[in-house]
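Collaborator request, handled under Task 6.
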Amino acid sequence: MIKQAEEEKTVLNNKRKQIQGATLCLILYDILAVNAAYFLALWIRFDCQFSKIEPKYLMTYVYFVPIYTILCLIVFRGLRLYHSIWRFASYSELARVVVSSAVTGVCHTILITLIFQRMPITYYVFGMAIQFILIVGVRFSYRFILLERSRRARKAEHYHNVMLIGAGTSGRIILRDMDRATESDDRVCCIIDDDPTKWGKYIDGVPVVGGRDDILANVEKYHVEKIYVVIPSATAVQRREILNICKETSCELKSLPGIYQLYNGEVGLQALKNVEVEDLLGREPIKVELREIFDQLSGKVILVTGGGGSIGSELCRQIAAHAPKQLIILDVYENNAYDIQQELKKKYPGLHLEVLIGSVRDSRRIEQVFAKYRPDIVYHAAAHKHVPLMEDSPCESIKNNAIGTYKTAYAAMTHGCKRFVLISTDKAVNPTNIMGASKRLCEMIVQTFDYMIKAGTPEKLPLLYVHAEDESGSMGFAKIPDQIKTEFVAVRFGNVLGSNGSVIPLFKKQIEQGGPVTVTHPDIIRYFMTIPEAVSLVLQAGGYAKGGEIFVLDMGEPVKIEALARNLIKLSGLRPDEDIRIEYTGLRPGEKLYEEKLMEEEGMETTPNKLIHIGSPIAFDHETFLMQLEVLMKKAYDNDEDIRAYVQEIVATYAPA
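Structure tokens returned to the collaborator:
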């Protein structure tokens, strides 16, 4: 260790000596250059003949040399011309050389005139200009030599031809970044832009070869291996159209995410991201009213159940950004809870955060959490969501989804929670699987709580329990308060891209393994939205709550899962059915070809956000439902194998596949 430290110290000392030596050489050059500049100016003034220079001017110049040398060194040092790394010289260094030449030139003019005599006008003008050329030339020539050496080295080795799409400001920045990148083996060989006035012209020596219709032809002509899409100002539809053309090539695709990158000065090679399948959906970014969300979350105690899951964790991220008084995360799976805890601690060090482990099925744990923290708002995201797994374990779906929701809602009501927001799914509409039916039960539970509270009969809501000691009341559950202000609502949406258990992570894994990519049916379709988009709408929908609503998020146009699989294969630079095989496995138990967002009987109301709608509740007998729910809980905890039949009696729209 000691020997290694000594070696490192020796290397460091050698580097310091090299830097000091280079700085000394630069100082000596500057002394020669500033004085040579004005001698050359005098020589040019007298027709480039030394014998014609008048002795009085020559002697004045000679006497002023020491004064001017000291002046220049002081100015150059003050403007840090000896502290820059000139291999990375840019506009800042150029500006400082300009300022130094101007300052020393003005001082030269004033001092030589006052101390000695007035010199010819051309002496001052030419002297300043020649000095600038000599000073800036030696500094930037070092960088030019390094760049040229790098270019030649890359030409000697194998490099990747890159097509740049976008000849605007961002495109020029990326092009120059690549030119400066000494370690990159990428080279822009052509540029595509839809502006016809740019066709046939050059940017830094690279031709603009045409518009989007010329992409495929020029990929072949220039043997392009990578395509960089740098059009941050393009609409989502325009980006989709261009990317759909690009994915027909076998090129690696990268893209600049958005125009905010340009505004924030983040444009550069490091800002380029791999093109993801959501970029091909072509939907404009969803907009929410951030002020409304901030007003409803700021200063509130907020509980997120299932806070470690895909939706729950994103809820936590966005809530944390809106200054809550306290954020409580409850999850049964400690690894996910730990991950989001560490992420939020790092990003929001001032956040009052509590991360708790517990199950929504445990009424005593839920009671304990609500009694201690008394949340103002609850986002109930805890649920079993995997359709095939729940088909194999239907009782677990009922215990966790339906009974867990009831227990959490009951605790929210008895402990003064102002709003309870259930995260539901489009699989609750005309369900064909037990998971969807269990989520429909959750929606009915939320509507029943709202109905009983508004009817003034909350005492009819039973306290569901499974422990013998709970029956005697020895566990000390809170009593129903006289005044209940809890608003119970549900928010229903479809699949989210990249969530746990969704098809996209599965497809990516299958592609990495060389296939096949498994699709259940060639005609199966689903609605998709990104996780942040869905959560933003959930938060805003909560602000519209008055109680009892089922908010339905507009998921846009449905997407064929087969097309999704093919696009992912193409984005990986491979060819469907050739490099990666697509295999159809058949619909899984309880799976539908398509999902619906609303039941046929439900109407549709609008909200201030056109992407958030309200479905009119379907009427059902709430008191009968509560009695059925108690029986259902007993059947679930008895692991009754015929539980689907009883669920079908409660949820009239449930038709098991």
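The cover message to the collaborator said: "The chain has 21 helices and 22 strands. The CA atoms of residues 104 and 521 lie 78 Å apart. Please let us know whether this matches your experimental observations."
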